[in-house]
Amino acid sequence: MSKSALLKSSIAKKYWMSLTGLFLCLFLVGHLAGNLQLIFTTGEEGKRAFNEYAYFMAHNPAIKILSYLTYISIIFHAIDGIMLAIQNKRARPIPYAYNNPSANSSLASRNMAILGTLILVFIATHMANFWWKAKISSDKFPLHMKELTVEDSNPMTGQPQKVNVKLYLTTSGDYVPVDQLEVKNNTDLYAKGVDLKMAEGYKDLHSLVFAFFGHNKSKEGFPVNDMALGAVLFYVISMFVMGFHLWHGFSSAFQSLGLNHPSYTPLIKKAGYGFAVLVPLLFAIIPILIFLTK
Ligand code: HEM
Question: What is the rounded average pLDDT for all residues in the chain?
Fold first, then answer.
């Protein structure tokens, strides 16, 4: 391959990496906004808000398209990044004789491929734990359920008594008694003994996340993770790695796209540093708080 073709292809790779990288930054903002509901609203209200949000994200056609774009971007960004790293290594197999890396580039910029690979490992395990269980697996998935204690009168004695009632939340917003229904096809609620679909329930993703990060209140079907502390640490370390990756990646994407301007570039750099600190920090706070408030 001629030198100019190689250059062209590596420029093209950088271009696509920048576009997919910036799109993934947008995904991060949206995903963070959705996940912050896990800690900002508590009790039944919080659980309901998160499960309704997750249902909307899984069923809205426009969001579905954005989801596919996200998967494609992750794959494209990772493959392009690995190819670029190999290409750079081949172009200079022997390092410069006088090399002072810390003076020429930041630690993050010199380790983008390693940081990216670690993030890819994080995404793979993260999707196996949440996305696979919620969207792909056909295993039984607990539905959003609310428990109430109500006053009733004893049918034999007529005396008042307290009765525990379990209710499913349906996608039309009503609560329906669990003991009168049976679940088919994961979320369809059928009247017991009759082949009649009454409503649809919500998958309880809120409890899946809470159980994963060791919250002992998530008793509806998901066993509390014995390794929750390890999971929380893994998330915190991964967010640290992601922060490092974004520290260099955010502003460098604008540069690779040719969006350079003497008055805007310093501003983009500052915005990139802010993004690289704030977004991973807020992501990391979520598992920590869930673990600590158990
Ligand atoms: C505390 C932090 C996080 C929590 C609690 C969380 C939670 C979840 C949950 C419950 C899902 C499955 C539900 C769904 O697909 O809508 C999911 C999907 C996903 N998460 Fe996260 N997440 C966190 C951080 C991250 C981070 C930092 C990344 C990327 C680096 C990420 C990437 C993804 C992707 C790509 C999906 C699949 C999205 C889709 O299907 O459209 N998540 N996450």
Answer: 91
Per the CB < 8 A criterion, the answer to whether 140 and 187 are in contact is no
Candidate of 126, 206, 246, 282 to mutate for ligand 1, largest count of ligand atoms within 8 Å of Cβ: 126
Nearest atom, ligand 1, residue 287 CA: 1
- The residue count of the chain comes to 294
Q: Which two tokens stand for residue 138?
A: 């056909």
**Number of C-beta neighbours around residue 191 at 10 A:** 14
Amino acid code (one letter) for 233:
L
- Encode pLDDT of 153-180 as tens digits: 888 888 889 999 999 999 999 999 999 9
pLDDT at 220: 60
> Contact, 284 vs 235, CB < 8 A?
yes
**Domain residues of the chain, as ranges?**
3-139+226-292, 145-201
Architecture label for domain 3-139+226-292 = Up-down Bundle (1.20)
Atom 15 (ligand 1) nearest CA: 131
Q: What is the pTM of this model?
A: 0.90
Q: Which helix (H) or strand (E) holds 56?
A: helix 43-59
The token duo for 12 is 């093209």
Over the stretch 53-73, which tens digit does the pLDDT of each residue have?
999 999 999 999 999 999 999
What is the mean predicted confidence (pLDDT) over 256-261? 89
